[in-house]
Amino acid sequence: MSTDPGSEVGRVLAVAHARAVSWLQGVGERDIPAWAGIDDVRHELGAELPRGGEPADAVLARLADAVEPGLMASASPRFFGWVMGGTYPVALAADWLTSAWDQNAGMREVTTGVVGAEEIAGHWIAELLGLPRESEVGFTTGATMANFTCLAAARTRVLGDVGWDVAGRGLSGAPRLRFVAGAESHGSVTLAGSLLGFGAPITVAVDAEGRMRSDDLARVLSDDEGPAVVVLQAGNIHSGAFDPFEQCVRVAHDAGAWVHIDGAFGLWAAASAHLRPLMAGASEADSWATDAHKTLNVPYDCGVAIVRDAPALRSAMGMHASYLAATASDVESDPHERVPELSRRARGIPTWAVLRWLGADGVDALVTGLAASARQIAAGLAAMPGVEVLNDVVFTQVCAALADDARTDAWAAALRADGVAFASSSRWHDRAVLRFSVSNAGTDAAHVHRALDAAAAALARVS
Ligand SMILES: *Cc1c(COP(=O)(O)O)cnc(C)c1O
Predict the structure, then answer these.
(1) What is the 303 CA–ligand 1 centroid distance (Å)?
(2) Which of 74, 82, 83 to mutate to test the pocket of ligand 1 (most atoms within 8 A of CB)?
(3) Among 82, 139, 188, 301, residue to substitute to test ligand 1 (most atoms within 8 Å of Cβ)
(4) Cβ-count burial of 457 within 10 angstroms (0-12 exposed, 13-18 middle, 19+ buried)?
(5) CA within 20 to 30 Å of 177's CA: 90, 202, 318, 386, which one?
């Protein structure tokens, strides 16, 4: 394949480059919701599979023309929907290189370039988050799979400790494993437990901010004995709250449980000197799941599974085949032994690039800044007539509501219809809420003000 700009590869990458730059230069000022319906997009793409093909540059032009009207401007600095980060240019560029190199990142001694970069990124993440240096780090598609990966290692260990080899014998007839999580744990924790044969979590009571109550954890764990896995949370999706790790980890470890922390966006609090107290005690857990594609602002898909007990992870995720080039070392595992996939792209490379570009101080400023913007949003909303901010804004999440649910929903719809700023509708503690999640590195005070003006105008329209 030639890289001469006159060649096919040069030509098609130039088309992609031009379309990407024009999209990114406009994304901050465009109406945030997608305006094309899915049927329109399908029609424009051409729903019928053609008999004959089409030249590559025509395919790319058709793709961009058809898809762009159906894109949500989630990269806008005034996008506060769900928990979705933007993308730093350096991360996007590194992602393009990763695709261009098209390496299979599964085997350490075969594709040394990309595995080396991912391993450094993994060490840097553990260091920034204050987690044990001996931990193994796997790059997954997202925090859902990171939770799954960590909980698979947990299953191997806690059943192994009572003499049950889950890899060999499966779960039929296995000792009962108690799977315990807070009443406001994320749905992906429930899904991971279901995929692993744990069943639905036994829930522990939470306080007004959604934090696990350690006294109730003690009660739940004392009900029975035997293998147990406890899932704690760093960053509640509604309140942003963090479980009291010191107390909960101690209670869980006293009962012999494995402790996992789902910190899809919240784990990054540890990288901020100002916010680090929220994470006190978290490093005593056994495994941690996070995303780089949320708080760290790298492109999808990048989740991170971090496990202290390397042999348990390797046993849960490893596979053996005579044709694989296994690493020569007993100490180092191959990347495919840390995640569910065998073949995969080197999705950790954009994370290396962002960390190298920001440095530890830059990550601190990023995370501290997101939380500061959330506090500004909360203060601005609370000053509007009839608006209540329901949560204690300790991190990046703000839940606002009006006295009546129907009016809250109407306010949310009016804000989104206006297109300037975007926040999600949700329900929390039996009330309709308008939820702002500050996850985009580009959100600064000026964008916060524009978003607040849009929220005030939307409120006036429904009052
Ligand atoms: C987003 C999120 C997840 C799931 O992460 P994905 O990257 O979407 O798979 C899990 N837990 C929490 C708390 C989240 O916010």
Answers:
(1) 9
(2) 83
(3) 188
(4) middle
(5) 318
Q: Which residues of 367-384 are buried (b: 16+ CB within 10 A; e: fewer)?
A: bbbbbbbbbbbbebbeeb
DSSP one-letter string for 269-297 = GGG-TTTGGGGTTGGGSSEEEEESSSTT-
Please state the atom number of ligand 1 nearest to the C-alpha of residue 265.
Answer: 15
Residue closest via CA to ligand 1's atom 5 equals 143
Instruction: Check pLDDT > 60 for residue 3.
Output: no
Decide if pLDDT at 373 tops 60: yes
> Hunting for tokens 């000053």 — which residue is that?
383
Whose C-alpha lies nearest to ligand 1, atom 1? 264
Cα angle value 345/290/130 (rounded, 5°): 115
Quote the ligand 1 centre to 146 CA distance (angstroms): 9
Average pLDDT, the chain: 96
- Mapped onto helix, strand or coil, the DSSP state of residue 308 is coil
Task: Return the pLDDT at 4.
Answer: 62
CA gap 337, 251 in Å, rounded: 31
Q: What is the mean pLDDT of residues 384-412?
A: 98
Whole-structure pTM value = 0.97
**Looking up tokens 């929907």, which residue turns up?**
81
Cα gap 6→164, rounded to integer Å = 62
